[in-house]
Model the fold of this input.
Amino acid sequence: MQNQEFLKSEKVGKLMLGYAVPCIISLLVGALYNVVDQIFIANAAYLGSYGNAANTVVFPLTVIALGICSFLAQISLVAAMAATNNMIRKYGATDAVFGQPEFAQIPMAVFGIVMKFFQIAISVSIGLAAGCIPVVGYNVGAKEYKRVKTLLGELVLCEVALGVVSLLIVELMPRALIGIFGAANESEHYTLFAVRCFRIYLSTIVLACVNKAAFIFLQSMGKAVLSTLLSLVREVALGVSLVIILPLFFGLDGVLYSMPAADSVTFIISAAVLIYTYKKLDKLERENAVSKPTAS
Done:
């Protein structure tokens, strides 16, 4: 136990980074592999946007293969992605532009590219939160609730900062991002739809980062059921239902609105849970402070 005392005494920010960086690197390697793979496909003269569209369809199968250890969370994500892909195909076919055979593959191709950039941001988000797991677990067990509260606050601030940086990139540089994937070889419809997709679909990426942190932080506190329920609400109850319902009213644009809507509703729930958790930790801290003199 003596070699674990640093978990009680070391600065929580330093501990979080120490555990988070290896996790972030491993997740980024996977995310960057997918990005590079998509770049090669997009710039291949004989594939282009058709190759991107095919890659988007196959991507959920990759998630299943990589996510077997956290089956429920991953399978719910796959369900949301599958529903999104289906709605893109369905409502893209009814769009005035993308209903034309020569442009039919564009919506699917663009969504695949947008999700690759989203995966990079979320990989860092998950890595930050996952780095907190051993620190939170140890300090909860040691009844060092003040440190757990501090860690929660610093984690949320880091997630917000990450989300803001990601948001600025996708809102200010969508043409540069899409240009990496061979946009110069595609029609103007491809670029215009990609710009709209980046700016609308990822407009709540700040909230998405905080939501992911909430799921993982709750799990690290031993609240696995609550964490899983929140994840299922986001990916299934909202992620699947909204991508089916909103296109009924907004057509293909409804698919773009589905992710911001799902993240916004989930954020309200996550924020309420995190506030409750913080207050509970505050109460436990006070109770522990009162019981210590008695125990001595």
Summary: The chain has twelve helices and no strands. Residues 12-290 form one domain. The chain has one domain: 12-290.
